[in-house]
Write a structure and sequence with these properties.
- There is one protein chain.
- By secondary structure, this protein is α+β, with helices and mostly antiparallel strands.
- It is built from twelve helices and nine strands.
- The protein has two domains: 154 residues, Up-down Bundle (Four Helix Bundle (Hemerythrin (Met), subunit A)), CATH 1.20.120.450; 217 residues, Alpha-Beta Complex (paralog of FGE (formylglycine-generating enzyme)).
- The strands form three sheets. It has a four-stranded mixed sheet. Strands 1-4-9 form a three-stranded antiparallel sheet, with helices on one face. A two-stranded antiparallel sheet has the order 2-3.
- It starts with a helix and ends with a strand.
Length: 381
């Protein structure tokens, strides 16, 4: 493991911290699935999710590709696994049908890759740190994806459920609206530090005045919407959303009724979030408004409560900022541009703090609700 390099090789402080962070992330990944048996790890729990054991192999293959092979200039440890664990070569729909590594072999592969990468970092350092940070965050993001799969399968540990079901503190922020004034602000990540390509370039945006809800929508509010005809009133739904709802006989997610009424609603699709907003004479914020509100309230010490509890859908389709340049590979962001994905902002209870920041852009298709996603309303000022 990475700690071996710490014990035997003098390292720079940056390399030491990176290896410690990578080792800690791996320990958390393995601990997440430690209580699951082989069947639970290998089973396809949902057609839109990977078997959990595939995620383990993919995490290792990604680390080997970027840090062992491309950064360390070593041959791939297992070239026979490259296509198998490539997310584009092997889409989710077929991952349960292929001959992937079993749980024991996947864990052994992860350990072997980590040991090689630790040696590479011990010899070369971390360079500018971008590739190491990218690989680390990739694993942290996959651990959230694995939690989504476990939630679908009813496999989340009790401690994880407590985080997901906790109500918002009544003293954190009363219900109501925050008025955000018109003005210009700089949107996106700065040139300093790590950021994904879709967060850059940082650019100035003029925003009209608007209002944004102080709190995300709660389970209780959602149940009132559902029981008040929310899934029956055609006028509240977009054409695409109504067709999806009718085809799949959609109603509120089971978790909405079973969890605390004051907890942020979770597992709602963009279609549902859009309908809820229309039913309440409101709308979803654009992602520009969301970032403006989040950064403005930080500066003014107002409270945009609940950020970090659930991802928050925005009205915006996922695309590049003006002047976008793919880095270090176009498949991270660019291949998803202009294909109907909607942007989510903030983070969820399952997002690692290293990943969560106010410029991070998540995205998913408008019909998906496996993600830990909720909604915060906006309206005209």
């Amino acid at each position: 493991m990475a700690t071996r390099a710490l014990d035997t090789t003098p390292l720079s402080p940056d390399a030491t911290q990176m290896l410690l962070a990578m080792s800690a992330a791996r320990e958390r990944t393995l601990a997440l699935v430690a209580g699951l048996d082989e069947h639970q790890l290998e089973r396809v729990h949902s057609p839109i999710m990977s078997p959990l054991v595939w995620d383990l192999g993919h995490i290792a293959a990604y680390e080997d590709l970027w840090l062992g092979h491309r950064y360390g200039e070593l041959a791939l440890l297992r070239p026979d696994l490259a296509a198998l664990y490539d997310a584009f070569e092997t889409p989710r729909a077929v991952r349960g049908e292929i001959e992937a590594l079993g749980p024991a072999d996947a864990r052994a592969y992860m350990a072997s890759v980590s040991a090689r990468v630790a040696e590479v970092i011990g010899e070369r350092g971390i360079g500018d740190g971008v590739l190491c940070e990218m690989v680390l965050r990739h694993e942290l993001q996959h651990s959230e994806t694995m939690r989504q799969t476990m939630a679908i399968a009813g496999l989340l540990p009790t401690a994880e459920l407590v985080k997901s079901e906790a109500p918002l503190d009544a003293h954190e922020q009363p219900e109501g609206w925050i008025q955000v004034p018109a003005g210009a602000f700089t949107m996106g990540a700065s040139v300093d530090g790590f950021a994904y390509d879709n967060e850059r370039p940082r650019h100035t945006v003029e925003v009209s005045a608007f209002a944004i809800a102080a709190r995300p929508v709660s389970n209780g509010s959602w149940m009132r919407f559902s029981e008040g005809g929310g899934y029956e009133r055609r006028e509240w739904w977009s054409r695409e959303g109504w067709a999806w709802k009718e085809e799949h006989d959609i109603t509120h997610h089971p978790a909405v009724r079973s969890r605390h009424p004051e907890a942020p609603v979770c597992h709602v699709s963009w279609f549902e979030a859009d309908a809820f907003a229309r039913a309440h004479g409101a709308r979803l914020p654009t992602e520009t408004e969301w970032e403006r509100a989040a950064t403005w309230t930080q500066q003014t010490r107002k409270a945009l409560a609940g950020v970090g509890r659930v991802w928050e859908w925005t009205a915006s389709e996922f695309d590049g900022y003006p002047g976008f340049a793919p880095y270090p590979y176009k498949e991270y962001s660019q291949v998803f541009f202009g294909k109907g994905h909607r942007v989510l902002r903030g983070s969820s209870w399952a997002t690692d703090a290293r990943v969560a920041n106010l410029t991070f852009r998540n995205w998913d298709l408008p019909l998906r609700r496996q993600i830990f996603a909720g909604v915060r309303l906006a309206r005209e000022a």
